[in-house]
Amino acid sequence: MKSPVQSESEPKLSANTSSHYEVTRADLPLSCPLPDRILWNSHPRVYLAIEDEGGESVCPYCAAHFVLRG
User: Fold this and answer.
1) In whole angstroms, what is the distance from residue 25 CA to residue 27 CA?
2) DSSP state of 58
3) I want to staple 57 with a disulfide (CB 3.0 to 4.6 A). Which of 21, 37, 50, 65 is the partner?
4) What are the tens digits of pLDDT across the range 1-60?
C-alpha cells in the first residue's frame, strides 16, 4: 500500500479530499491535513494521537478518519 504522504518532488494535493486515510508508522506524527496537502483552503493543522486512540483517529475539524496499518 502506498503511503498517503508524497515525496518532495510530487505536487501537493488539495486538503481534505478524502474522508478515509490509511497511514503507517512512517507517517507519524500524524497531522490533518497531511503534510503533503495544500493548506491555504483548509483548517488549521492539528496533530492526532492515533497510537493513544487504539490505531484509529478522527480529525475534529473535518471528520477525516485515519487508520494506522502495520
Assistant:
1) 5
2) E
3) 50
4) 445 555 556 677 666 667 999 999 999 999 999 988 887 778 999 999 999 999 999 999
Beta-bridged to residue 22, according to DSSP, are: 67
With 0.85 as the threshold, say if the pTM is over it: no
Q: What is the pLDDT of residues 5-19, one digit of tens each?
A: 555 566 776 666 679
Residues in contact with 11: Cβ distance below 8 Å, sequence separation at least 6, in sequence order: none
Residues 6+ apart with CB under 8 A from 56: 50, 65, 66, 67, 68
Separation of alpha carbons 67 and 15, rounded Å: 18
The three three-digit cell numbers of residue 67, written as one number: 487508520
The domain segmentation of the chain, as residue ranges, is: 13-68
User: Hey, which residues does 68 pair with through a beta bridge?
Assistant: 23
